[in-house]
Amino acid sequence: MEKNTAESVKDSPSLFHSRVFQAIIMSGLFLQIGIWVRNFAVLLFVMEKTNGDPFAVSMISVAEFAPMFIFSFIGGTFADRWRPKRTMVWCDILSALSIFIVLITLHFGNWHTVFFAMLISAILSQFSQPSGLKLFKLHLPEGQIQSAMSVYQTLFAVFMVFGPILGTFAFQSFGIEISIAVTGAAFLLSAASLAFLPKDRVLEGDAAPTTLWEEMKAGVAYVLKKRELSLLGFCFLAAGLGLGFIQPLSIFLVTEQLGLAKENLQWLLTVNGVGMIIGGGVVMAFARNAAPQKLLIYGMFINAIGIAVMGFSTNLWLTLGAEFINGLMLPCIQIGINTFIMQKTEADFIGRVNGILMPLFTGGMVLTMSAAGIMKREFSLVFTFETAAILFIIGVLVILPLYNLKTETQATEQLQLED
């Protein structure tokens, strides 16, 4: 174990010199610019066109999140069948093409196609995202994976803070057509960044001709066979159910619990985003010394406390403090999950495992999001938030048996080598 740690420390400085890491981070940067400009430009444009019609606005979220639930497993299976570099490049090119088609239709007055832009990009991301994880697994030493994921998640955290500002500025300054054009250009720049990736390797699985259905069944069997992945799936479900209760109701923390104007929600979101940036940096600094399942357990537990405090709090500073702590811990959860999946999953199954686990989270979140309003009306805002906190605690209890898994796994591998 000491030898492995020493090797990880030795390898770590070369992370930022890795072509794979550089290409994926640059691609992620351009994608985040495009996504946030698109999301906020479309949101403001639809609100302007419909005079704030709630149904039209809700359809934006449907177009963005429904493909995550419907296409995640299919996309993950194809990501395992296809070459990852080629898959990511073509997904970005097709996303850009769909954006430019929407731009042409906008020019001729058909504004409803903005929903099409959201939908196509969201579908293609279900093929591209697991391919990116697969590239990390294939090309980075295991000791660098968690550090790489820390940087990757910190990039997302930065855009959680500055993305809305960027998107709002683009729409208000240049209008919907220029904003959509910027999105298309960002996707093309992402594809160009990925061109610097090494040539795709030919995996053993490429030589075994199997049907899509057989590979999907093999993916389900793989997750069920591996206890750690099955437990992680139950944890995903509990976390999704909990987040679904609180995500639509955050505005009521501001208006009901704190008695402030709804516009003050931006401060909660900003504090949460700053916490995410700091948390990502802290995890990145200590990534080599933290087992991913421990990051996940600590993050889930402290988030449960933060959610419970937010539900009870009627003090602005206490609520802001809890929101900051939640943001601080979110990278622990995200980085812990992604690193754990990559460490415990063979490269041939990365896409399918991701495609099975993510719909559990998304499906749970969509289910409780639809029930959150009823829950608040029939009981109370406090009851709903405390229920969400309890669901997070249940998620912690489910994965608690994995706390010392790293030592057990290494011991098993050592015995197998001796045999």
From TrEMBL:
Keywords attached to this entry: Cell membrane, Membrane, Transmembrane, Transmembrane helix, Transport
Transmembrane segments: 20-43, 55-75, 87-108, 114-133, 154-172, 178-197, 231-253, 265-286, 295-318, 324-341, 353-375, 381-403
A GO molecular-function descriptor: transmembrane transporter activity
Entries under InterPro entries matching the protein: MFS, MFS_dom, MFS_trans_sf
GO cellular component: plasma membrane
Domain Major facilitator superfamily (MFS) profile: 228-419
Membrane topology: Multi-pass membrane protein
Family matches, as PROSITE patterns: MFS
Cell compartment(s), UniProt: Cell membrane
Matching PANTHER family: MACROLIDE-EFFLUX PROTEIN (PTHR43266)
Record-given protein name: Putative MFS family arabinose efflux permease
Taxonomy of the source species: Bacteria, Bacillati, Bacillota, Bacilli, Bacillales
